[in-house]
Q: What sequence folds into this?
């Protein structure tokens, strides 16, 4: 049963990794939803492109709204819980997460999923990265556990 007190801070809400990536990409894409695809193009044995995937872009939020959310997510990295995701020489944006794992009858008191999802470089992101650590040991918060992993990956690909 869903309850207003639990939903207000993210419990009782479930999304897949692909759903959260698709949603944050709509923000990074200026308000356009672009359905993800596994194959970008197909190349034959001569190196010629024989098929290119051209996903449809659908406006789902106003560009001004997407820009405001991007700015808020940049604030998470600059001065919030995602400071450990900051990139030297590049602007990045993202969101930390720390979720208690569900168990029969409620939520675990000691099992978590720590996450960070972000994109870089701003203002025109080229990469989105989702880091989820299932049952981290020691530190449990996404900003402490997953944000540094985001930074390592983004440094190599930005």
A:
């Amino acid at each position: 049963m869903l309850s207003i007190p639990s939903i207000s801070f993210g419990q009782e809400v479930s999304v897949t990794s692909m759903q959260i990536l698709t949603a944050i990409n709509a923000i990074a894409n200026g308000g356009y939803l672009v359905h993800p695809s596994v194959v970008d193009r197909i190349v034959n044995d001569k190196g010629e492109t024989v098929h290119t995937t051209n996903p449809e872009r659908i406006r789902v939020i106003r560009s001004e709204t997407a820009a405001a959310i991007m700015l808020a997510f940049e604030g998470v990295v600059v001065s919030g819980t995602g400071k450990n995701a900051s990139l030297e020489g590049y602007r990045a944006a993202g969101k930390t997460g720390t979720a208690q794992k569900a168990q029969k009858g409620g939520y675990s008191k000691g099992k978590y999923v720590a996450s960070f999802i972000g994109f870089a470089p701003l203002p025109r992101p080229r990469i989105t990265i989702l880091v989820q650590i299932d049952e981290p040991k020691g530190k449990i918060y996404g900003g402490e556990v997953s944000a540094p992993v985001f930074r390592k990956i983004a440094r190599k690909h930005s």
Remarks:
- The helical segments are 4-7, 17-28, 63-79, 142-145, 147-157.
- The chain has a mean pLDDT of 93.
